[in-house]
Design goal:
It is a single chain. The chain has 234 residues and is mostly helical. The protein is built from nine helices and two strands, in the order E-H-H-H-H-H-H-E-H-H-H. A two-stranded antiparallel ribbon has the order 1-2. Helix 4 packs antiparallel against helix 5 and helix 4 packs across helix 6. The radius of gyration is 18 Å and the shape is globular. This is Cyclin-like domain-containing protein. Keywords: Cell cycle, Cell division, Cyclin. It comes from Zea mays.
């Protein structure tokens, strides 16, 4: 059985007609088990060391490969089902992120994957469970990219879930997300540039933890605005 639907009669085998969710089976999952972390240290000068103007320009060019398709923001601003799907997905991702105390990069990456997928792939309107499965898969991939210790993907299904999925099902959806995003998962984020700009504004002196924390709060606060999408920083 691919999916346990709480309050519904569907099974994932009902969803495998969607390209058979890539038509790939999953082997044993390799996942470290542990607890989350605050993650602030990981975003101060992390991901890519940025210390020159040339590096910043190169990263800004790379950033264009990790944004939603053109027209996606306008579609959301018009409202409708797609907007409500993204709002509900973001609300759930934020709750689970807080529950496990994952780092801020994990949250940003999960939403980045969600937006890029929704802008490129038409989810069926008559399969609400698939939207929740997408949220689980995006968060699971982000956690695998960023966290050093993490729960099993099936254990991410907390905080008022309507459907519950097996590990094999989540793995198949992860593969569909990976294929749709062309395996471009190491996204350039605003956190990439924190150390560079704080160094510029601070006269070359090491930034205080409070200042770095404030930058992180601003980025996450902007991300949680349901009508805003991650855009190029410059």
């Amino acid at each position: 059985m691919g999916i346990l639907c709480l309050g519904a009669s569907s099974t994932l085998l009902c969803g495998e007609d969607r390209n058979n969710v890539l038509g790939l089976g999953c082997g044993n999952e390799l996942v470290e088990v542990g607890s989350g972390h605050d993650g602030l240290d990981s975003v101060v000068g992390a991901v890519f060391p940025v210390d020159t103007d040339e590096a910043v320009r190169a990263l800004l060019e790379k950033e264009t490969d990790h944004k939603p398709q053109d027209g996606y923001a306008e579609r959301l601003e018009r409202g409708g089902l797609e907007y409500s799907w993204r709002r509900d997905a973001m609300d759930w991702i934020c709750k689970v992120h807080s529950y496990y105390r994952f780092g801020p990069l994990s949250l940003y990456l999960a939403v980045n994957y969600l937006d890029r997928f929704l802008s490129s792939y038409d989810l069926p309107h008559d399969k609400p469970w698939m939207r929740q499965l997408l949220s689980v898969a995006c968060l699971a991939l982000a956690v695998k990219m960023e966290e050093t210790v993490l729960p099993l993907p099936v254990d991410l299904q907390v905080c008022d879930v309507k459907f519950e999925f097996e590990a094999r099902t989540i793995g198949r959806m992860e593969l569909l997300v990976l294929a749709t995003l062309k395996w471009r998962m190491q996204a350039v984020t605003p956190f990439t540039f924190i150390s560079y700009f704080l160094d510029k504004f601070n006269g070359g002196k090491p930034p205080s933890l409070a200042l770095a924390s404030r930058c992180t709060d601003i980025i996450i606060g902007t991300l949680k605005d349901h009508l805003r999408l991650p855009r190029p920083q410059l």
